[in-house]
Amino acid sequence: MQLINRISNRLFKILYWPICRAYARHIVGNMPADAVLRYLCSLQFLRVHRFWPDFVHPRRFSEKLFSRMLHDRDPQLALVNDKLRVRDYTAAKVGSEYLIPLFWSGDKPEEIPFDALPLKFVIKTNHGCGYIIIVNNKTQLDHTDIMVRVKKWLGENFGQDKYLGIAWGYKNIRPCIMIESFIEENGKAPVDYKFYCFSGRVEVITLHFDRFEKHKTRAFDRNFEPREFRYDFDQWKGECQRPPNFEAMVQLAESLAEGFDCMRVDLYSLGNRIYFSELTPYPGGVSTRFLPTSEDYTLGEKWKRK
Question: Are residues 150 and 193 in the same domain?
Answer without folding.
Answer: no
